[in-house]
Amino acid sequence: MATVGARTWVVAGGRIPVDSSGDEPEFTSFDQLCLLNADDSDAEVELTVYYADQEPVGPYQLRVWARRIRHIRFNDLVDPEPIRLGRPFGCVLTSSTPLVVQVQRQDTRVPGALALADVVAYPVP
């Protein structure tokens, strides 16, 4: 199989609103990474988060099994520290094998209205 994806990805912007319109976890606003590993080897992933007013946080350690996908909410990242709600952030993701990375955003602050956006992260050559 040909190589699919890249080993380094950049997500320029993210923000998880503090307020949501319903109970957790279904109606909690989130930013989520969607990772596709089409390789025959497991992907060992490191994620570093950048804020405007403090030093970067990370790395967060993740794994994506060979020939699998994995969805990870930024809300669920807690080690080395939880992602700060209501604060703009960006991140750099590096992987031991090539991945395809997509970012989903769901804003549930307005009851009865769900704003969902998908973007592909920027692959660094």
Describe what you observe in this structure.
Strands 1, 2, 3, 4, 5, 6, 7 and 8 form an 8-stranded antiparallel sheet that branches. Strand 3 (43-51) and strand 4 (57-64) form a beta hairpin. The protein is 0% helix and 54% strand. By secondary structure, it is mainly β. It contains no helices and 8 strands. The model has no long low-confidence stretch (mean pLDDT 86). The chain starts with 5 loop residues before the first strand and ends with a strand.
Task: Give short descriptive properties of this protein.
125 residues; mainly beta; 8-stranded antiparallel β-sheet; 0% helix; 54% strand
Summarize the biggest pleated sheet.
8 strands, antiparallel
Low-confidence stretches: none
Range of helix content: under 10%
Average of per-residue pLDDT values: 86
Strand fraction: over 45%
Class from secondary-structure proportions: mainly beta
Shape: globular
Oligomer: single chain
Alpha-carbon Rg, integer: 15 Å
What string gives the helices and strands in order? EEEEEEEE
How many H/I helices?
0
Distance between the amino and carboxyl termini: 20 Å
| DSSP, total strands | 8
